[in-house]
TrEMBL record:
Coiled coil: 89-116
Pfam families: His_kinase
Transmembrane domains' residue ranges: 33-52, 72-94
Domain annotation Signal transduction histidine kinase internal region: ranges: 114-192
Protein name: Histidine kinase
Keyword field: Coiled coil, Kinase, Membrane, Transferase, Transmembrane, Transmembrane helix
InterPro entries documented for this protein: Bact_2-comp_sensor_kinase, Sig_transdc_His_kin_internal
GO molecular function terms listed in the Swiss-Prot or TrEMBL record: kinase activity
Length: 303
């Protein structure tokens, strides 16, 4: 009875240590030898601690017969190893099954989106050629109209030719975002100040296209239109340790209620759905809806 004491504590501790450290940090990164060493070390140390605890409990509380340290240690090592191995394998099988379901769902979603895109296509190449024709017929002195149409054409071209891929390079996506911001600024008056700051985006990182722009579109939609104080949108995009960070803040009027990511707004609802499918546990999307400003923070782990 006393020898069997406190197995559950060490088995649980070992499981969490292996599942939260050894598996994601070593096994998933193909460091099999280090994974084996780390796992054996964790189990051996816990068996040793468990033996010490069992001996002390047996001596001071249960007053049982004196038992050899090596015997208890060997029993602890075998029992903890078997239980931890069993629980870890079950957990990995469950995770694998859930991942497979997510992949199947993602594939169905991809096929559906592709079909919807094809159905909605009204010869986009012809439309792009039409835009170029219109651009050629605009009087050269009307620089504003020509600039607006040219920017719209570039936006449309990016969505037509680049966004068919599952992932695009971050520098291309940021170039599209800057073009989109410039296009939107033409629709606003001079009272709107837009700051866009990008850092370390040329790191070779790739992301799914048209994720960040949904948040920027929301900022332009709900930005304030004060006549006596500043109307502002701040956009910050940077990469740190293979993780993409994006922060978007816009001023808003007190009576205005910006769209929440969980309700309303097809764009944001679709964005949240895409993030759940594409990046599952590898992203965070936080919203801060204050009285006079609205902030969204998105981070994506590209690994």
């Amino acid at each position: 009875m006393t020898v069997e004491f406190c197995y559950l504590i060490f088995i649980t501790a070992d499981f969490y240590a292996i599942n939260n450290f050894s598996v994601p940090k070593l096994l998933f990164r193909k460091k099999n030898f280090l994974f084996a060493i780390a796992t054996l070390t964790i189990i051996a140390l816990s068996a040793w601690f468990r033996t010490l605890v069992a001996l002390q409990m047996n001596r001071h509380f249960f007053h049982g017969p004196v038992i050899d340290f090596n015997t208890i240690y060997l029993n602890s090592l075998v029992n903890i190893s078997l239980w931890v191995l069993l629980v870890t394998i079950i957990k990995m099988l469950i995770d694998r099954k859930q991942t497979q379901k997510q992949l199947e769902l993602l594939e169905k979603e991809r096929i559906k989106n592709e079909l919807d895109y094809l159905k909605a296509q009204i010869n986009p190449h012809a439309l792009l050629n039409s835009l170029n024709t219109i651009y050629g017929h605009i009087d050269r002195s009307n620089r504003t109209a020509r600039a607006i149409l040219l920017q719209f054409s570039d936006l449309f071209k990016y969505q037509l030719y680049e966004c068919g891929a599952e992932k695009v390079s971050l520098d291309k996506e940021v170039a599209y975002i800057k073009n989109y911001v410039a296009f939107q600024k033409l629709r606003k008056d001079d009272r709107l100040v837009v700051n866009i700051d990008t850092e370390n985006i040329g790191s070779g990182l790739e992301i799914a296209p048209l994720l960040i722009v949904v948040l920027i579109e929301n900022a332009f939609k709900f930005v304030s239109s004060f006549s006596d104080k500043e109307n502002k949108i701040d956009i910050q995009i940077f990469v740190k340790e293979n993780r993409l960070f994006c922060s978007i803040i816009n001023t808003k009027e007190i009576h205005q209620s910006a769209i929440d990511v969980n309700s309303g707004g097809i764009g944001l609802v679709n964005l949240k759905r895409r993030l759940d499918l594409l990046y599952a546990d590898k992203h965070t999307l936080d919203v801060n809806n204050e009285q006079d400003f609205y902030e969204t923070n998105l981070s994506i782990n590209s690994r």
